[in-house]
Amino acid sequence: MENNVQTASTGGGFQPWMAVNDNKAGMEGLDKEKINRIILEASKGSKFYENELKKEQQVNQRIEKMMQQKELITVQQLRKAQLLVDKLVNDLECSRDLGRIIVHIDMDAFYAAVEMRDNLDLRDKPMAVGSMSMLSTSNYHARKFGVRAAMPGFIAKKLCPSLIIVPLNFDKYKAVSAEIREIFAEYDPNFSPVSLDEAYLDITDHLEQRCCWPESRRTYYLEKEITSTEHTSDLQLSGNTDGTISPVLFEDSPPPSLNTAPEQKHIVFGISAEEAVREMRFRIEQKTSLTASAGIAPNTMLAKVCSDKNKPNGQYKIPNNQQAVMDFIKDLPIRKVPGIGKVTEKMLKALGITTCSELRQQGALLSLLFSETSWHHFLQISLGLGSTHLERDGERKSMSTERTFSEISDPEEQYSLCRELCSDLAKDLKKEGLRGRTVTLKLKNVNFALKTKASTLSYAVSTEDEIFALAKDLLKTEIDNSSPQPLRLRLMGVRISGFQSQEDKKQQQKSILGFLHTDKQDIPFTSQGHMFSTQGTKASCSFFNRKKAELMLNDQKQNPQEHQTCNVGDRDVHLINGSNGLLNCMLTCPVCLMKQNTSDLKTFNEHIDKCLSSVSEDQEDTNDKTQKASNLPICDDKNEIKIFCESDINESVHCNSSNVMSTSCHNVKDKMTRIVMGNTEEESTAEESSPLIHNSVGYSRSCSKESTTQSNVTDLCEMIQHKQDYKQKSSSLLTRMHLLCPVCNLKQETSDLDVFNRHVDVCLNEGVLKELVKERPCSSDAVSLLDRKTTAAHLDVNSRNKSKRSASPPLQHAAKKPKHNKNENTIYRFFR
DNA sequence: GCGGATCAC
DNA sequence: TATGGTGATCCGC
């Protein structure tokens, strides 16, 4: 690896770009020459390789440019820069926080280790997890051959013909991940997961308490753990009788974490950080038969580097003092630092920087060649500084879905594919109740050239149709630009970003609340103060209009025929203009969910008020918590809920013409009861909730009626939420709830009613769609384009999810897999 | 805001 | 035969 930029760009026989790096644990002391030759031979001439060369040249150009810039730097500039750097170093040093003890813990060759644990035949053989197209990870036997993560299986096979490739089994990894996270939580309830197999913990508080613990609390018994764990008992039966607890997964692995005599039945851990971490690793090993490595340091950056130091099955600690930190940092190769990747390494190397102390020495130069954020970051690294505060579940910034397939050049197929991706994305968005303003289309052509196209709206979108409307335009532009040559694609992806922040949501809620509680004189209410007017504050208008737009879209999609004869816009006019449009309608009360034998809005409102009042009284009168379940609207007489505005009335208007509504409503009400109380009713089966979707006679003919139900549920929930917010009850009540979707019957990992509402909305629509499809003859062999085009290998490659939302921990990949539901795809295609 | 790049896992 | 998917961030327009 001694080649510099210049020689690399000449493209001599040896290509460092494609070559193995020995950064990864278990890759030391390999026959790199040979490995690189094999990799090169297997890659040379491929489109992929050509593209890698191109990218490499771009980096080289970047470096050349940087070097030219460097030549222009004067001594004075450098001196001035040095002063600036010195000042920053001083400031940074002053702010150095050595008060926390951060642990980074990382399972050893996680996926491979799980597979080896569960299949004894794999133990002593080189193996990897993934497919012929892509490997996720390899065991340490395989690493000796140069087989590593992110390497295509077919190349790995060339390096190691006896390599066994095991397909990914995410469910299993997720299960193990849940087990280890239980342990993490005992040491730091606020631990920060990085991926299925990795997490940061701040054990400072744990250690404070730990020092007072009696020995008994730090004592762990072997047999108890082993017998209570299925995995380990399997191994015991399988002849693992060498006195170690877990299988020796790696032959170069240090002795097992238990350094007591085999006959000893318990082990007492000390009170130090190292002992606590050893204990944690011991417990992980006892529980899962898998080993973990850990780093202990004053901040996350150092902890992360440390966990790699004694991998596998080891740990390393940097004491919490400045000197120890600087000693550790001194000769640390910059590439070991998280955030410094291949390219940055190469650029810095061109400046003669390979270690962290060199990074420090060249601070002035770096400040003149890199952006402020970059050189600040470099400087922090060089001082061994990093985050001392673990980020709690940050807000998601984007969500995307993308797929690789064998070449698709036909525009029709490309559009079709694009829609499928939008559909998938919309489903994922629903799950989290998100809406975004920016849609980005990602395309990779058969030459591996990547391109993204984005479009931003002034409002947020979330449905398949909305997203597709944007994505298809972006795609069209690309197709047109390419014409008459076809776009030859190997990958397509759709991303959505520009979500409402929590802050935005609060703002919105406030404005809605303001809308609901504004002085009557300011709002064109009816004489009773009910919001039958279409007017209102700006924010609330857009909110409800969007809601209506969504419903219109659903209407069109779900029942175009009905839509033709009964136009939503027309109905709007009737409503706005007065009671004409209501003459032949009956209204359904959103509280008692009973049809009201009136078309007079005034009467109807009075009924609602009565309903609300009565349930409020109930709520106050009773101490019986189960009774409270029926108290849907949380309000009092003084704060009448007057939430019925235009869109609601529209929906209510639909629902009088058949008895579908009442059937559905009762179900909804039942479910709502549970939602509000947080009664998860685990025993509630799919059958129990299915009537909501399947049981209604004529359901498929009355799609808009389903919208009614949906709207009522949604608005009731919103009503409740807003009321609760208003009464400042939300945090005390809502956050403890387990929300169970009444439609899909799945527990939703959110306590945010807004999020939950959106999920329910979506679920309800899906029910209608499915029902509709059942009714309509639809080619059963209308298989998804992606299913046809995507190879199994492509589907099963590594994809560790890095969701920042701890409410739905990084398990999303697996959750995303069922996306390839052919029925669902055909449903959406049907409506195209 | 857009598009390309880099990085992590 | 065959080189991934998801999310974040940064930089230079």
Describe the structure.
The protein is of the alpha+beta class and 832 residues long. It has four domains: 1-72, DNA polymerase, domain 1; 102-320, Reverse transcriptase/Diguanylate cyclase domain (Alpha-Beta Plaits, 2-Layer Sandwich), CATH 3.30.70; 398-500 and 783-830, Dna Ligase, domain 1, CATH 3.30.1490.100; 505-775, no CATH class. It contains 37 helices and 18 strands. It has a five-stranded mixed sheet with strand order 5-6-1-9-10. It has a four-stranded antiparallel sheet with strand order 11-14-12-13, with helices on one face. The chain has a three-stranded mixed sheet with strand order 3-2-4. The longest helix has 26 residues, at 47-72. It starts with a helix and ends with a helix. It binds a DNA duplex (9 and 13 nucleotides) through helix 3, helix 7, helix 15, strand 11 and strand 13.
Number of helices: 37
Give the oligomeric state of the chains in this entry, treating copies of one chain as homo and distinct chains as hetero.
single chain
**Distance N to C terminus:** 55 Å
Number of strands: 18
Give the fraction of residues assigned to helices. 40-55%
What overall form do the CA principal axes indicate?
globular
- Average of per-residue pLDDT values: 67
User: Unreliable runs, pLDDT <50, ≥5 residues?
Assistant: 1-16, 224-245, 250-260, 512-586, 588-593, 615-738, 763-783, 791-832
What is the topology, as strand order, of the major beta sheet?
A: 5-6-1-9-10
User: How would you characterize the largest beta sheet?
Assistant: 5 strands, mixed
Strand content: 5-15%
Structural class: alpha+beta
Gyration radius, in Å: 31 Å
Number of structurally distinct domains: 4
